[in-house]
Amino acid sequence: MGIRLHLFPKAMAMTQTITLRRPDDFHLHLRDGAMLQAVLPETTRDFARALIMPNLVPPVVTAAQAAAYRERILSALPAGADFTPLMTLYLTEDTDPNDLARAHAEGIAVAVKLYPAGATTNSHSGVHNFDKVRPVLEKMAEIGMPLCTHGEVTDPEVDIFDREAVFIDRVLEPIRAATPGLRVIMEHITTRTAVSYVRGATGGDLAASITMHHLIINRNHILAGGIKPHYYCLPVAKRETHRLALVEAATSGDGRFFLGTDSAPHTDANKLLPCGCAGCFTATNTMSCLAEVFERENALQHLEAFTALNGAAHYRLPANTGTLTLTRSEAPVSFPSHIETGDGPVTVFDPGFALHWRVAE
Ligand SMILES: NC(=O)N[C@@H](CC(=O)O)C(=O)O
Ligand SMILES: [Zn+2]
Ligand SMILES: [Zn+2]
């Protein structure tokens, strides 16, 4: 299908449109209950599929829990939505390899999520001792079930800005060396170290997802000129050189990098606290922001690969058949500053610059 760029003069201004395959989001938090109900339409409007994160309370650990969560998502779908949730299992030290294999074989879950215990929101049921999950990882390598990682160590001695790079050395590389054939997705990477690690891997077993917001913000956005809780997410945004490496990877067309938004809704009440929650809510304007980023890099021809082809190929799924059209206008387009949920308002990510691309109805 490829990309079609149309430039046609219209009255005064130039209108530009791009048509791509409908995108996939390979890292999404939908939560549950009233929050699920409110945030789901923000994703299904643009995305055909999303990899659903299992960090609920209690976490989605078993095949039965994943099947039940999928049913709750399907019941919350807006009328007429064409959307497939791809479920994940939350890896714990008690995960049963046979239950996990059943979830994979029956198409209930497509991947397993590794949270180092304490690394991020609702990760306390995650892994403390990586040796304890060795049999599960071996089973996953055997059946070809991918491992998605929240790649940060939790050692309090390690500076928070170094936790991703240290995770690669201390956890990821040893796991991959000990488990040949294990397919791994480094999720929401934030450093040039991670970009280089993915680029240096051979054998096709390693890929990485990148969020939209990490292509836009660096740590100054969080900390300079006053603290901005709505830009606080984990892994925390790093310095500008890292952001530039992420932009280069995402816009390059390299099949090992693809979109996982990590859209992570928290109510404003939970963000704006002395100890506020980590997460940016980006589902509403991801495609608009990405089009802007790719346009600035003269890389609109790779937007489809990043959002609709590379991830599907890595997860061994067919690409979507439907299309999504983005239209550029000279006048900036606006998005709501927040969405209402039954739990309270959730602020929508503000890229900090004018957006010109919108998804056509
Ligand atoms: N990214 C975040 O800052 N938060 C995520 C958890 C995660 O993906 O690490 C969340 O569930 O809120
Ligand atoms: Zn994470
Ligand atoms: Zn996440």
TrEMBL record:
<feature type="binding site">
    <location>
        <position position="234"/>
    </location>
    <ligand>
        <name>substrate</name>
    </ligand>
</feature>
<feature type="binding site">
    <location>
        <position position="150"/>
    </location>
    <ligand>
        <name>substrate</name>
    </ligand>
</feature>
<dbReference type="InterPro" id="IPR002195">
    <property type="entry name" value="Dihydroorotase_CS"/>
</dbReference>
<comment type="similarity">
    <text>Belongs to the metallo-dependent hydrolases superfamily. DHOase family. Class II DHOase subfamily.</text>
</comment>
<protein>
    <recommendedName>
        <fullName>Dihydroorotase</fullName>
        <ecNumber>3.5.2.3</ecNumber>
    </recommendedName>
</protein>
<keyword id="KW-0378">Hydrolase</keyword>
<keyword id="KW-0862">Zinc</keyword>
<feature type="domain" description="Amidohydrolase-related">
    <location>
        <begin position="25"/>
        <end position="325"/>
    </location>
</feature>
<dbReference type="InterPro" id="IPR032466">
    <property type="entry name" value="Metal_Hydrolase"/>
</dbReference>
<feature type="binding site">
    <location>
        <position position="29"/>
    </location>
    <ligand>
        <name>Zn(2+) 1</name>
    </ligand>
</feature>
<feature type="modified residue" description="N6-carboxylysine">
    <location>
        <position position="113"/>
    </location>
</feature>
<keyword id="KW-0479">Metal-binding</keyword>
<feature type="binding site">
    <location>
        <begin position="29"/>
        <end position="31"/>
    </location>
    <ligand>
        <name>substrate</name>
    </ligand>
</feature>
<keyword id="KW-0665">Pyrimidine biosynthesis</keyword>
<comment type="subunit">
    <text>Homodimer.</text>
</comment>
<feature type="binding site">
    <location>
        <position position="266"/>
    </location>
    <ligand>
        <name>substrate</name>
    </ligand>
</feature>
<feature type="active site">
    <location>
        <position position="262"/>
    </location>
</feature>
<dbReference type="GO" id="GO:0044205">
    <property type="term" value="P:'de novo' UMP biosynthetic process"/>
</dbReference>
<feature type="binding site">
    <location>
        <position position="150"/>
    </location>
    <ligand>
        <name>Zn(2+) 2</name>
    </ligand>
</feature>
<feature type="binding site">
    <location>
        <position position="262"/>
    </location>
    <ligand>
        <name>Zn(2+) 1</name>
    </ligand>
</feature>
<feature type="binding site">
    <location>
        <position position="27"/>
    </location>
    <ligand>
        <name>Zn(2+) 1</name>
    </ligand>
</feature>
<dbReference type="GO" id="GO:0006207">
    <property type="term" value="P:'de novo' pyrimidine nucleobase biosynthetic process"/>
</dbReference>
<dbReference type="InterPro" id="IPR006680">
    <property type="entry name" value="Amidohydro-rel"/>
</dbReference>
<feature type="binding site">
    <location>
        <position position="188"/>
    </location>
    <ligand>
        <name>Zn(2+) 2</name>
    </ligand>
</feature>
<feature type="binding site" description="via carbamate group">
    <location>
        <position position="113"/>
    </location>
    <ligand>
        <name>Zn(2+) 2</name>
    </ligand>
</feature>
<dbReference type="GO" id="GO:0008270">
    <property type="term" value="F:zinc ion binding"/>
</dbReference>
<comment type="pathway">
    <text>Pyrimidine metabolism; UMP biosynthesis via de novo pathway; (S)-dihydroorotate from bicarbonate: step 3/3.</text>
</comment>
<feature type="binding site" description="via carbamate group">
    <location>
        <position position="113"/>
    </location>
    <ligand>
        <name>Zn(2+) 1</name>
    </ligand>
</feature>
<dbReference type="InterPro" id="IPR004721">
    <property type="entry name" value="DHOdimr"/>
</dbReference>
<feature type="binding site">
    <location>
        <position position="278"/>
    </location>
    <ligand>
        <name>substrate</name>
    </ligand>
</feature>
<comment type="function">
    <text>Catalyzes the reversible cyclization of carbamoyl aspartate to dihydroorotate.</text>
</comment>
<dbReference type="Pfam" id="PF01979">
    <property type="entry name" value="Amidohydro_1"/>
</dbReference>
<dbReference type="GO" id="GO:0005829">
    <property type="term" value="C:cytosol"/>
</dbReference>
<dbReference type="GO" id="GO:0004151">
    <property type="term" value="F:dihydroorotase activity"/>
</dbReference>
<feature type="binding site">
    <location>
        <position position="55"/>
    </location>
    <ligand>
        <name>substrate</name>
    </ligand>
</feature>
